[in-house]
Amino acid sequence: MNYGKYKFEQAKKEKESRKNQKAVEIKEIRVTPNIGDHDFEFKSRNARSFLESGNKVRITLRFRGRELNNMKAGEDILNRFIEDLSDISTVEKKPFLEGKTLFIILAKKV
After folding, report:
1. CB of 58 within 8 A of CB of 27?
2. What secondary structure letter does DSSP report for 88?
3. How far apart are CA 95 and CA 110, in angstroms?
């Protein structure tokens, strides 16, 4: 067999397999500890649409100033997101604090 032909066939197969792959993006939603009900519902709907389209969602809760004293309120909001989106998503990363920011990452259920 011709080596050049073999290399061409391999390159063709690789190109075809790359064409069928979809890179998973991480979409970010930012909220604050004192988010209103309507804002929460709006952000939740956006997160649901991101998850349905196959992306992962990172929900970022940013504390400013004295808000850091009330960490429980921030964790409650993130748990509310988890509960609201539990029918379509799983928690990939539990709430964790990094500096003044709490994060969770949600992925679509398989």
Report:
1. yes
2. T
3. 21
93 falls in which pLDDT band (50, 70, 90)? confident
DSSP label of 67: G
- Which H or E run includes 74? helix 71-84
Q: Which residue has the tokens 């649901």?
A: 48
Tokens of 32: 């604050």
Q: 87: which 2 tokens?
A: 């029918």
Structure tokens at 60: 């970022």
Q: How far apart are the C-alpha atoms of 60 and 105, rounded to whole Å?
A: 9
HEC-encoded secondary structure of 76-87: HHHHHHHHHCCC
Query: What are the CA-CA distances from residue 85 to residues 25, 49, 57, 79 (Å)?
Result: 18, 11, 11, 10
Query: Cβ(68)–Cβ(100) under 8 Å?
Result: yes
pLDDT digits (tens, 9 = 90+) for 62-86: 999 898 888 899 999 999 999 999 9
* 20-53 confidence digits (pLDDT tens): 777 778 999 999 999 999 999 999 999 999 999 9
